[in-house]
Amino acid sequence: MASQPQTDSTLEALIRQKYRHGFVTDIESDTVPPGLDEDIIRLISRKKKEPSFMLEWRLRAFRHWLTMKEPSWAHLRIEPIDYQGISYYSAPKSKADGPKSLDEVDPKLLETYDKLGIPLHERARLAGVAVDAVFDSVSVATTFKERLAKAGVIFCPFSEAVQKHPELVEQYLGTVVPYTDNFFATLNSAVFSDGSFVYVPKGVRCPMELSTYFRINAANTGQFERTLIIADEGSYVSYLEGCTAPMRDENQLHAAVVELIALEGAHIKYSTVQNWYPGDEHGRGGIYNFVTKRGECRGANSRISWTQVETGSAITWKYPSCILRGDNSIGEFYSVAVTNHYQQADTGTKMIHIGRNTRSTIVSKGISAGHGQNSYRGLVKILPSADNARNFTQCDSLLMGDRCGAHTFPYMEVKNPTASVEHEATTSKIGDDQLFYCLSRGLSEEDAINMIVNGFCKAVFNELPMEFAVEAQNLLAVSLEGSVG
Amino acid sequence: MSVAPALQANATLERYRTLFEERFTSGPLLEARRDALDAFLKRGFPTQRDEQWKYTSLRRLEARTFVLGEAAPVSLEPARRPWITHGGGFRLVFVNGHWAPALSSPMAQPPGVTLVTLGEWVKHEPDAVLEYLAQASHRSASALEQLNAAFFEDGLVIRLSPNARVDDPIHVVHVWTSTTRPAMAHPRVLVRAGHHSSCTLIEQYVCCGEPESFTNVVAILDLEEGAQVQHYRLQQESPKAFHIGHIDVCVRRDARYGIHDFSLGATLSRLNIRVRLQEPGAHTDLHGLLPPSGTQHLDTHTLIEHIAPHTTSTENYRGIADGRGRGVFNGKVLVHPGAQKTDAHQSSRNLLLSPTAEFNAKPELEIYADDVKCSHGATIGQLDATALFYLRSRGISEADARVLLIHAFAHAVLASVETPAVREHLEALLAARFGSTQVTS
Question: Smallest CA–CA separation between B20 and chain A, in Å?
Answer without folding.
Answer: 35
